[in-house]
Design brief:
The complex is a heterodimer of chains A (145) and B (146).
Chain A lengths: L1 H27 L10 H23 L7 H7 L2 H31 L4 H32 L1
Helix pairs in contact in A: 1-3, 1-5, 2-5, 4-5
Chain B lengths: L1 H29 L11 H23 L6 H8 L2 H28 L7 H30 L1
The chains are: A mainly alpha (145), B mainly alpha (146).
Chain lengths: 145, 146
């Protein structure tokens, strides 16, 4: 059982680091997800969609799918579930704020709904992941002290 | 204290019902106003302005939870730990609603041109409505249980 706890802790710390790094990378790839007509653009776009979907699955389920059930349960305890709710709430506010911003910007410089959707999805997911990673890392740091 | 608790209970019931009704009315009121191509005529401008004020008010309602004019004691009763948890869960569903609507706008825009303004309106409308609906449902369940 102790071994399960150790594995869960190591995996949890790794998950927190990956969440923060993924959020930063996801935002930087926003520019690469445009939907032009070239084949390379289609591939990039599909990549962005797949990555976005994967990050959403991580946000929803918490990851650790390759770990045994006991470890996965330890990785998604009450504290982590609370962190997830908090991070999704931050994602909600950022998505709303980004949508409001695109609404205003379109008034002066019209652009497509597809671009607005990409921006909102990107910032919403990135904010939620960043918050999740931050909360998890803070909890582990607190545990270490 | 019993009076305060009774009053808080009544206000909480009202808030839970109001959240559900406001969510439904907010979505229903948007149906007639798409698309809103510029330049807008006077009724369209009024409709858009009303939507902006309404959306801001609902977001404020979601963030603050009401009871602002009733003093800190009543506010504390109205926004206890359970309600704060409900609010968080509601916003989590609002997040999924917003991202889901954005994904839908993204997919639909390959077949039907959608402006950024229309896309943003849809995302904000469904995000807020889902969060409010969830908040109302959770609060009513908890009050019924109590």
């Amino acid at each position: 059982m102790t071994s399960d706890i150790d594995i869960a802790e190591r995996a949890g710390r790794r998950r927190a680091r990956i969440a923060v790094a993924s959020a930063a990378m996801f935002v930087t790839t926003l520019a690469a997800s445009t939907s032009e007509q070239r084949l390379v653009d289609h591939v990039r776009m599909i990549g962005w969609v797949a990555w976005g979907a994967m990050l959403l699955i991580v946000l929803a389920g918490g990851g650790g799918w390759f770990q045994p059930l006991g470890v996965r349960k330890l990785m998604n305890d009450e504290v982590t579930r609370d962190h997830r709710q908090r991070s999704l709430a931050v994602g909600f506010w950022v998505a709303m704020a980004t949508a409001a911003l695109t609404f205003v910007v379109d008034r002066y410089k019209p652009f497509q709904g597809q671009d607005a959707a990409r921006i909102i999805i990107t910032f919403g997911i990135a904010a939620a992941l960043l918050r999740f990673g931050w909360l998890e890392r803070s909890a582990y740091r607190h545990q270490d002290q | 204290m019993a009076n305060h608790a009774d009053l808080a209970d009544r206000i909480a019931w009202g808030r839970a019902r109001a959240a559900t009704v406001m969510a439904l009315v907010f979505v229903a009121a948007q149906i007639g106003s798409f698309p809103d191509d510029f330049p807008l005529n006077r009724p369209q401008t009024l409709h858009l302005a009303a939507w902006i004020v309404w959306a801001a008010a609902l977001l404020f309602f979601l963030a603050a939870g009401g009871g602002l004019l009733r003093g800190p004691r009543m506010r504390a009763l109205l926004n206890d730990e359970t309600t704060i948890d409900h609010r968080r869960r509601a916003m989590a569903l609002g997040f999924w609603g917003a991202i889901g609507t954005a994904a839908l706008v993204y997919g639909l825009s390959f077949y039907e041109p959608i402006s950024a303004r229309e896309g943003a309106r849809l995302i904000i409308t469904f995000g807020i409505a889902l969060a409010l609906l969830r908040f109302g449902t959770l609060e009513r369940k908890a009050l019924k249980h109590a």
